Amino acid sequence: MERKFSNEELEAMDPEDFRSIARRGEWTGFDLNVCRGYAQANLAIVPKDYAFEFLLFCQRNPSPCPVIDVTDPGDPHPKLMAPDADLRTDLPRYRIYQNGELIDELTDVTKYWRDDLVAFLIGCSASFDWSLRAANVQFRLIGAYASNIQCVPAGRFHGPMVISCRVVKNGHDAVRAVQISSRLLKVHGPPVHIGDPAIVGIKDLYHPEFPASSYVAPHREPSEIPIFWGCGVTPQKVALESKLPFMITHSPSHMFVTDRLGEELAFI
Amino acid sequence: MERKFSNEELEAMDPEDFRSIARRGEWTGFDLNVCRGYAQANLAIVPKDYAFEFLLFCQRNPSPCPVIDVTDPGDPHPKLMAPDADLRTDLPRYRIYQNGELIDELTDVTKYWRDDLVAFLIGCSASFDWSLRAANVQFRLIGAYASNIQCVPAGRFHGPMVISCRVVKNGHDAVRAVQISSRLLKVHGPPVHIGDPAIVGIKDLYHPEFPASSYVAPHREPSEIPIFWGCGVTPQKVALESKLPFMITHSPSHMFVTDRLGEELAFI
């Protein structure tokens, strides 16, 4: 069923078209750079019994977990972000966690769906990459890592913050990246760290636990600066750490594409 | 028990001292202008069974309901905003709602406290008044009103948005007020409306449903502009409208004073 699409085709697609090729299993790969300008979302689906504590966890950790939509129990349609979409089928790839273990990875979660499930859409920093590019900020997205920063716990949810890294060209671009991402609080907002990766617990910057592509060259210029943002893969780490009985998420770098432009979610 | 304090004394108090005079019943009046620079909070306490839907209501209505702290069930101490405070005693005045009716107004809610209650602190725009003053923005706080703007519902919670009004001196100050409040998302953020009060359903601007003082003179200069922000009295209107079985709130204009400066809660 898999089809070939050029980067240009993927970038020019509108969200509805991209979701339909994901739904039909024609695209099951990374989707960091599809649908130019549109906000993407990380997915975290938990049983209703866990919904309050998870929402509170997100509220206490707005940097990795900025909530942009929450469905009613059993309803797979995200009313605010894309009312016609179906969260069970419209992402390229999903993960199933049970009792703190990854038990399945698949491209359609209809068979796991239950009437008591509540879906959370969490803004994704892939969205502000378009705003960085629009301002000609020179950067390379490296990937994401479990950091040594602990999230503020809530109820049964606790664990490390996952953070993403972009290496920007120089100090000027670092300043612009801070300014631009600060406006976009719903897609992680300002960085959590700038500079030495070791300070936030990252040993090998160029071999991320969740890579954004198959290979990225290390930086060579002393002017280049690594910048770190909260990452929406955090709920998956937290599901593992908290031994959650059941959770459905997207696979890292296989996000949901919303009907809203990233800039529509900007605060200023 | 009531004592006299000058405006200067109240303004110079630190939060702990102000909470202690409220706790001892020595101050039961308005506290809009106490503890210069410190963030104040609206209070909404609901049974745990309603906590998820209420948090979701706040998440969907961040302008009137920016959540800054949520207590664990039965715990009256707001760990993030003022860990040594007691939310049952440290506000000047409270209201009790039962089945959508106001049944009591009092200065200590210990006798109503239960082990299943979850307290929400919601940022208050009285906090950004200090930031407006610091920038020499000329304004007068008039009060708050139920508007014709409907909140986004969540579960059993629905109702109109309550909004506060400040009249600023001129267009320049209006621009500055937008900029400054936009930085302070956790105390309501940017305005929801500028200009004609009738458009947001306000018939008599100078007789607000929730006055900020006993009398405010109408504005006379054509250069003066009314600006409207989401208001943390919204949960009280919503409790009435949604016929909530039980809710404890602050009395309007009798907020909780946190240990955090308003500017600490600024995003940029």
What is the CATH superfamily label of the largest domain in chain A?
PSTPO5379-like
Please mark out the parts of chain A with pLDDT under 50 across 5 or more consecutive residues, or reply none. none
Biggest β-sheet description of chain A? 7 strands, antiparallel
Order of helices and strands of chain A: HHEHEEEEHEEHEEEHEE
Using the alpha-carbon principal axes, give the shape of chain A: globular
Structural class of chain A: alpha+beta
Largest interface: A-B, 19 and 17 residues
Q: Mean pLDDT across all residues of chain A, rounded?
A: 95
Number of domains of chain A: 2
- Count of helical stretches of chain A: 6
End-to-end separation of chain A: 42 Å
Walk me through the structure.
The structure is a homodimer of 268-residue chains. With 268 residues, chain A is an alpha+beta fold. Chain A has two domains: 140 residues, PSTPO5379-like (3-Layer(aba) Sandwich); 107 residues, PSTPO5379-like domain (PSTPO5379-like fold). Helix content of chain A is 21%, strand content 28%. The first copy, chain A, is built from six helices and twelve strands. In chain A, the strands form two sheets. In chain A, strands 1, 2, 3, 4, 5, 11 and 12 form a seven-stranded antiparallel β-sheet that branches. The longest helix of chain A has 13 residues. Chain A is globular. The model of chain A has no long low-confidence stretch (mean pLDDT 95).
